[in-house]
Specification:
Two copies of one chain form a homodimer.
Chain A (H helix, E strand, L loop, with lengths): L2 H19 L6 H8 L3 H7 L3 H26 L7 H13 L8 H8 L6 H23 L5 H22 L4 H18 L1
Helix pairs in contact in A: 1-2, 1-4, 4-5, 4-7, 5-8, 5-9, 6-7, 7-8, 8-9
Chain A binds a DNA duplex through helix 3.
Amino acid sequence: MKRTEKREHLIDVAASLFNRLGYHAAGIDLVIAEAGIAKTTLYRHFNSKEELIVAVLKRVDAQFRDKMRATVESSGNNKGDKLLATFDFLEAWFKQENFHGCPFISAAGEFGDQPSVVFHEAAIHKRLIVAYLEELARADGLPEPRKMAEEINLLHEGATAVAHITGDPTVARKAKNVAERLIRQAQAA
Amino acid sequence: MKRTEKREHLIDVAASLFNRLGYHAAGIDLVIAEAGIAKTTLYRHFNSKEELIVAVLKRVDAQFRDKMRATVESSGNNKGDKLLATFDFLEAWFKQENFHGCPFISAAGEFGDQPSVVFHEAAIHKRLIVAYLEELARADGLPEPRKMAEEINLLHEGATAVAHITGDPTVARKAKNVAERLIRQAQAA
DNA sequence: GATAAAGTAGACAGATCTGTATCTTTGTCA
DNA sequence: TGACAAAGATACAGATCTGTCTACTTTATC
């Protein structure tokens, strides 16, 4: 592995461990063992565990939104149902072996007491998601795109939480079904 | 304080700390200091921290559903809008000073790796909530009450997550607004 | 008032946590 | 090939974690 790849690999490994075990439960020693690097190396890249967590969240955010975008764009956007395609992305996510709920919601739960950079990073991600949904609602030609984006986002968050707790990925389709009704109703109005 | 009350008070204090700081971040030493009891006493009541967490979740579940029930029953259930009243309960919850997201979602995030009794307890709570919502849907005379309960539950979970991240309690009303449309649509069909 | 149960205080064990210091090895690039 | 920066290995510091142990005190109950 190249030197420049080490940092990226470290972030990926840390993301996986934090996602699986939680941010407090996954210790630095475990991260470096899994990543196959020395502790010195980790602390050369990041001054603290908190900085590592923030880097992880930034990367997960970027990957998450990229994949969602890819799903939407590759879907048959014949009609104007881009918003609905986001639920197909969710379903694929829920079906993954390593799905353990939303990493940002978990982060907010573990670092939500005092104003924390970790919590803040999670909040940024959520804002970006809603902004993207609004963009899709606009592209779909829906009235009140901001309102629609917030409503679709409610269904996203709800589906993610339920899929996590129940382990049932089909909740994505149930949420999509609700979204369909909302969109149809908005179009009729 | 009476002896028998100590255990209850301990659970309440632990619930507050776990909710605020997280289950891993809040240590036993902090719990006993805040509760004003000796460590020996805690470990006489609970064999491990995990047992304490489970006791906390059981209590929070009972209180949560009791309050939701009370809100529904005290609301003007003139028409048949019991399901809608649950969103008023959510809004009141979101407005509380110590609202830090759903304790069960956080617990699932921190103990979701291997099959854990903590995760299991969270799953039980969520099943009970959906069962209650189904009961309300039935009382409201809605068709397909199970399906409606699951859809309302999606909105509950979504609103809770969004309220946690954004800190904006008015999302409860937005979710209620969506629920109104779903219910009206179901009644019309 | 005696007795047994429960609580307090606090030291302690042993593990684990984050983060640092030291020294050696390795990869990169001129 | 030689210089230099990055990574490795590893011991360590100091804090904190869960859980135990001992010894003493309070409290409830008969």
